[in-house]
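fyi for ur records
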Amino acid sequence: MTIAPKKLWQKHGRPSLTYLSIALIGAAQIVFIWQLTFERSQYEQAEASRHEYIHNANLAAVIEEHTDHSLKSVEQSLDLIEKTYRQQGSGIKLKRLQLDGDLSFKAFSDLAVINEAGLLVAGLKQTAPVKVSGEDALRHHQALDSHRLYIGKPIYSQVSGTWSIPVSRRINRPDGAFAGVVMAGIDPAYFTDFYLKTDVGTQGIVSLIGLDGVVRARRVGKQTTTGDNVSRGPLLLAQARQPEGSLLGVGGFDGVTRLFSYRTLKDYPLLVAVGTSQAQALAEVFQREKKYYANATLATLAVLLIGTLLIWLLMRSRALQLTMHNTQALQRASFNLSAIGMSYLDRDGRYLLVNDKLCRLLGCSATELTGSLVDERVFPADRAAHQMLLDDLRTARQEQPSSMLEIRYLHQNGSLIWALISVSLVLKTANSPSYFISALQDITERKRMALALRQRDQQLSSAFEDSVIGMGLSSPEGRWLKVNRALCQMLGYTEAEMMSASVRQITHPDDMAISQLRTQQLLQGENAHFQVEKRYVHKQGHSVWTSLAVSLVRDEDDQPLHFIAQLQDINQRKQAQDEIRRLNVELEERVRQRTRELQFAHQEIAGFSHSVAHDLRQPFSSIMGFSHLLERELKQQTSERGKHYLTRIRAGVHQIGELTDALLALVKLSSIDLRWEKIDLSVMAQNLVARRMLLEPQRQVQCHIHPKLQTVGDAQLLTVVMDSLIGNAWKFSSKMPQTTIEVGSERGPGQDTIYFVRDQGVGFDMAYAAKLFDNFQRLHSPSEFPGNGTGLASAQRIIRRHGGRIWALSTPGRGATFYFTLGAAPPQAAAAAA
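which gave:
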């Protein structure tokens, strides 16, 4: 286990004094290196700047001397012109003086004499008196009676496109009055050409500046300028403090930092300045400075690296010490907290150190175990094997030999403990054993489970062999691996014959395809098992029908191991099924025969009904007609008794006609086809009741009809049923002054709908309930309640055709309730009704 330095610091607080000392020494060395580098750099910059200032000051002195000498020559030349003007007056010839070489200064660009009125008296380029521009010089000399040379601001000529520096002297009359000025123009190139002879670098500067801040002549590299105002520049500010000196300044016109040296002319209001570019003047110094800083950086990195390495090595050393300490602590904790029994043994097999787990496993304390022999705790029968294991380890040639063994130990309470021990030998030297490390794992429960598994395997094997159904194990390739006696007896083979045959060889050819398909589905994982009826080939050649159930056993890697097949002999069931199919065919033939007979009988009934309708009605009609004729013929002669007989004859004929109509209606009900549709019995009942109320408005009848009594059936036939039931309720309650009829529904025991019609009429005795639905059966005489006795019989026939049933409950004098149900419509009829 390695502890990182940062984590070590965080774990053990601030770094030690050693770490701080190394860090402080390194920091001091870095500070010293950089201080020395900085001071050396500053010193070299200062020395190089000092030498440059001296060089520039020397150049400034030379230029000052040149400028002073030049201006002195200008003054001498102007003095000569003044004297000549006094002698010759306006006839003075300045051109002649210049050509004759009488003038000591040879660089005049212009010469002129101007009188007190400002008129040009004489000049190099103009001789006639004209007004000239010289007001600045005139005003200066008029105001100041001085014989000193006046140097004006540079003038730019728009005609020639050149600059000129104007200089002038005052001319006085003999009485001292102002008489004019002698003026001259000096080309600035006179000075700048001289400045080109100096070596101030490509960015160096030489300037002649008036104390009024206006540049008279300036050279920057090889370029010259005149007339700029630098009154706010650093040179004029420095000159105001002292007439000569040096300074570091930035050029206002080009932004270049320069080392300037300047001098102020003693006799003239001018200063001379020489400046060299700091970058060029100190180029070598700056180059060396980069090397100094690079070396200082390398030295700093070296100090940091060495310091870091020293600290890391110290921390690494401490971390290793802590790791060793922690490792030992971890080993002690692992030893004591281990989930298995751990112990250290001397070379003789005595306990040196034991952990808590071992003490709990053996039921002893650490004091009891320490110093005792291990063999004292080993079951006597296993002591020899344990001693042999220790001896083998003592004589082993490996560097750290180890071995494992399953043995039994004796618990303190006398019980046996199965344990898996792993013993390793730790060598002090190459051949001298130091101690044994023993690890003991309690496997008592595992041994019990193994014994239980063996017993279960024996039970399963016994159940397999003694099973009354055929059982077998087969490989994924279709070879029998194991079969029981029942399977051998079922198919007539011996066990050896079954094991030598494949499943395919004893499968009936017609069932081969389905067997292979289901087997492939198992192997591909589509099904976990399958069950199918399959035929096998008996040893004697006949087929054996079996109910086959097959499942697949897989290993830990989900690879197929073997199939488990269970076969039950179903030959007798198959024979019974064949017999049932034969009987079904015979029954279907009988049904067809019976249907043909019923159809013939129905045709006979239809023919009979036709005969009744035609053959019987004619005689009855004749009887009815002749009875009316007889009554008219014997009207005056017939007694009351005779009239009564005739009335009875006509009533009998009328009754026979009604019975004939009822009989025909019953026959028709059996032959009509049902037309299924949605029906609302509530609406139907309301219409039937309303019709009866119209016929007998004097009746006091309250009708309670439940809403939404909806069903599916033949509307025409169910109208007959409802009319018969409501008609009976209306008829048999006619003797009551006030009555109530209720039409509704309720739920039956099977949650089916039961419809009912309830009245408060005369009722009937339940002893005669079975006769209610028979043809032409009546419980009351026609004189009490008219009718022909076919209404309920027709209702029952219609209800049965709808798949339902009808019944009644009553108490004499307390009314009756008729109940009926309707079966479900056939699927095609229900779909049509929907």
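The longest helix spans residues 17-88. thats all i got for now
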